[in-house]
């Protein structure tokens, strides 16, 4: 699903440049649930931005579902993001004046899905994250965990190839975090490919594979025995 | 076509509607600007209409011609000779100059602007007395309060009838007294009153204290023979008055042996000049109002753009999310530009409706009065369309500013955690 070869990225900071990614190689198959771990400054956010087509690598190859991701203009990048990727952010990033259903339907709007179908799908995915009754509530009326569920529903609504989650539990308490991870595991069980960026050990171990990043290189890439989050809920 | 995409409009109205306070604040500038534009234009129009009303009843394409005295010796005549027109001149002019539409000769009793005593039952009034043809009514319309104006049978039969001014009536009659059919005496001759007129608004050639009698009756009663005082002439609508004026003068100078270079012998007054002066004044006024209004509107639209610029900054995160969700730069730009246009158009309409209401009130207050040139102050459809179109295109151009600012936001920066 995701193929990365010799990925390099550096940032210019005034006169000196900061080499953040120093030649990464890995691939993620369909249906995997992968955690990318690393302390701050390890390059994990940069990697996620490149995977999410929000940023571009200086050199190296990135193939997503067989499509080479290279030299994209903004329009193409937006279309690919919409088609291939679902984003889940640490701070949820819901649009605060749209209710839950409208937020979930937003990617579908950009896919030009007809209105009625959009609403049906939004409700379907809200139902899947257990928030069907909250469809018409504004984000401000939802708890943190509920907001993240809405965000997950939104990421899934466009039926992307890969879900990219950036510290998705970073703003939540541990109990809610486990509930969210339980949901992520359920979604993964259905066959969805999910990539989770985190610095929390327990969250990482709820995935099936952990890629350890340190100083811009892959330190360790290991399959782990998945800890089911439902045990903690 | 995206313009008819219901979702797009729902998205835009939703965004604007969810931020009501911000939206209203943003619109204020354009609302006020539109009010100013419409009020200014409407007032200028009202003024123009007001002048039209004042001049209504006076043929705008008309002139007056009268005889004066020569300033140059010519063909053996000394200078200072008085030129007196004859009634036959009227027929000669009409025959030779086809551009003349109406020609009404007139004669006055006494000297120019002379006052003659008019008697009735021991009451006296010092009035101007004119011998007239009914055609004069086509050039300077009389507002009749009672009865009728002179007609052609009056001329043919040399009836001893007259039409008097309201002031003359007040001097000769008690208030409310019936005047039609009553007789008045001028220079020992009795005339029976057939009509009373009111001065025609502000253009007042004859005065309010005047008596009109048929030209033919005047000739017989006062022994004026074939003399004529002056002529009121209406020219065909598409002909320049000045052109006809010079033709008339050439003909008359020739007939009365006046030097072609003598400027003083024949006097004339071109009415169309006043009209063109006033109409160019109101045109300038309208143009000026438009100019001021459009620039005020521009300021209002710039204010909208400014606030949109600020809100784009405020919405950085939202726009970043939208782009991460797959909004292309085109979609983002379209949304922000359309927000600017919708805001402007809506504000413009609010301002327009309000201003039209105010103009309506102004019209009710001043519109019917005669003394103030302010009638039906309203902007017309072309003016409205031009300003509205201009407003929309300006808002489109200016909406691009915040839109491009929004495009500069990289999703990655927008989504970076604070």
Which SSEs are present, and which pair or pack?
The complex is a heterodimer of chains A (233) and B (418).
Chain A: E1 2-13, E2 16-28, E3 33-37, H1 44-51, E4 59-64, E5 67-68, H2 74-84, E6 85-88, H3 100-110, H4 115-128, H5 144-157, E7 162-166, H6 174-189, E8 193-198, H7 201-204, E9 209-214, E10 217-223
Parallel strand pairs in A: 3-8, 3-9, 6-7, 7-8
Antiparallel strand pairs in A: 1-2, 1-4, 4-5, 9-10
Helix pairs in contact in A: 3-4, 3-5, 4-5, 5-6
Chain B: H1 6-18, H2 20-55, E1 62-67, E2 85-86, H3 87-96, E3 100-108, E4 116-120, E5 123-132, H4 136-139, E6 143-147, H5 152-156, E7 161-165, H6 166-172, E8 183-186, E9 189-198, E10 210-214, H7 215-222, E11 227-228, E12 230-235, H8 241-255, E13 266-270, H9 271-314, H10 316-324, H11 329-366, H12 381-408, H13 411-415
Parallel strand pairs in B: 5-10, 7-9
Antiparallel strand pairs in B: 1-12, 1-13, 2-11, 3-5, 3-12, 4-5, 4-8, 6-9, 7-10, 8-9
Strands in their spatial order, largest beta sheet of chain B: 4-5-10-7-9-8
Number of E strands of chain B: 13
Helix-strand topology string of chain A: EEEHEEHEHHHEHEHEE
CATH class of chain A: Alpha Beta
Instruction: Give a quick account of the main beta sheet of chain A: strands, pairing sense, barrel closure.
Output: 6 strands, mixed
Strand order of the largest sheet of chain A: 6-7-8-3-9-10
Radius of gyration of chain A using CA atoms only: 17 Å
Shape category of chain A: globular
Q: Which structural class do you get from the secondary structure elements of chain A?
A: alpha/beta
Number of strands of chain A: 10
């Amino acid at each position: 699903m995701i193929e990365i070869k010799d990925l390099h990225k550096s940032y210019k900071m005034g006169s000196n440049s900061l080499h953040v990614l120093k030649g990464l190689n890995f691939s993620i198959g369909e249906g995997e649930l992968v955690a990318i771990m690393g302390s701050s400054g390890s390059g994990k956010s940069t990697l996620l931005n490149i995977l999410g087509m929000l940023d571009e690598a200086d050199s190296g190859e990135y193939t997503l579902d067989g499509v080479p991701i290279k030299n994209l203009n903004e329009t193409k990048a937006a279309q690919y993001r919409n088609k291939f990727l679902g984003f889940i952010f640490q701070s949820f990033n819901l649009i605060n004046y749209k209710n839950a259903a409208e937020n979930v339907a937003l990617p579908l709007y950009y896919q030009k899905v007809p209105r009625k179908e959009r609403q049906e799908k939004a409700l379907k995915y809200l139902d899947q994250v257990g928030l069907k009754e909250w469809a018409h509530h504004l984000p401000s009326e939802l708890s943190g965990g509920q907001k993240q569920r809405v965000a997950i529903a939104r990421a899934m609504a466009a039926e992307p190839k890969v879900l990219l989650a950036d510290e998705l539990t970073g703003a939540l308490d541990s109990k809610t975090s486990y509930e969210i991870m339980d949901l992520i595991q359920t979604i993964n069980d259905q066959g969805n490919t999910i990539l989770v960026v985190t610095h929390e050990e327990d969250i990482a171990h709820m995935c099936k594979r952990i890629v350890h990043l340190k100083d811009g290189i892959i330190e360790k890439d290991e399959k782990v025995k998945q800890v089911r989050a439902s045990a903690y809920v | 076509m995206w313009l008819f995409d219901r979702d797009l409009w729902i998205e835009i109205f939703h965004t604007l509607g969810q931020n009501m306070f911000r939206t209203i604040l943003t619109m204020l500038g354009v609302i006020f600007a539109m009010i100013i534009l419409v009020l200014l234009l409407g007032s200028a129009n009202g003024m123009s209409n007001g002048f039209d009303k004042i001049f209504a009843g006076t043929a705008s394409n008309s002139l007056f011609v009268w005889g004066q005295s020569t300033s140059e010796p010519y063909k053996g005549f000394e200078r200072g000779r008085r030129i007196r027109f004859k009634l036959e001149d009227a027929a000669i002019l009409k025959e030779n100059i086809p551009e003349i539409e109406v020609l009404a000769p007139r004669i006055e009793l006494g000297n120019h602007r002379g006052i003659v005593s008019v008697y009735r039952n021991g009451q006296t009034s010092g009035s101007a007395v004119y011998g007239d043809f009914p055609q004069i009514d086509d050039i300077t319309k009389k507002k009749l309060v009672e009865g009728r104006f002179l007609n052609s049978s009056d001329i043919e039969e040399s009836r001893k009838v007259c039409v008097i001014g309201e002031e003359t009536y007040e001097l000769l009659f008690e208030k409310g007294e019936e005047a039609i059919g009553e007789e008045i005496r001028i220079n020992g001759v009795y005339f029976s009153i057939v009509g009373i007129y009111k001065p025609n608004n502000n253009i007042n050639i004859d005065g309010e204290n005047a008596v009109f009698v048929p030209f033919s009756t005047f000739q017989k009663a006062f022994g004026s023979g074939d003399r004529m005082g002056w002529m009121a002439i209406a020219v065909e609508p598409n002909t320049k008055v000045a052109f006809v004026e010079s033709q008339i003068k050439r003909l008359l100078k020739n007939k009365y042996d006046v030097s072609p270079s003598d400027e003083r012998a024949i006097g004339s007054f071109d009415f169309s000049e006043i009209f063109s002066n006033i109409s160019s004044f109101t045109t300038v006024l309208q143009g000026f109002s438009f100019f001021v209004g459009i620039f005020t509107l521009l300021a209002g639209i710039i204010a909208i753009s400014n606030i949109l610029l600020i809100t784009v900054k405020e919405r950085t995160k939202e726009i970043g999310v939208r782009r991460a969700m797959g909004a292309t730069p085109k979609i983002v730009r379209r949304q922000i530009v359309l927000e600017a246009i919708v805001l402007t158009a809506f504000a413009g309409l609010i301002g327009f409706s309000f201003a039209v209401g105010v103009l309506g009130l102004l019209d009710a207050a001043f519109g019917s009065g005669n003394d103030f040139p302010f009638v039906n102050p309203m902007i017309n459809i072309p003016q409205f369309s031009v300003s509205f179109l201009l407003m929309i295109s300006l808002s489109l151009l200016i909406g691009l500013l915040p839109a491009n600012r929004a495009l500069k936001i990289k999703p990655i920066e927008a989504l970076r955690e604070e």
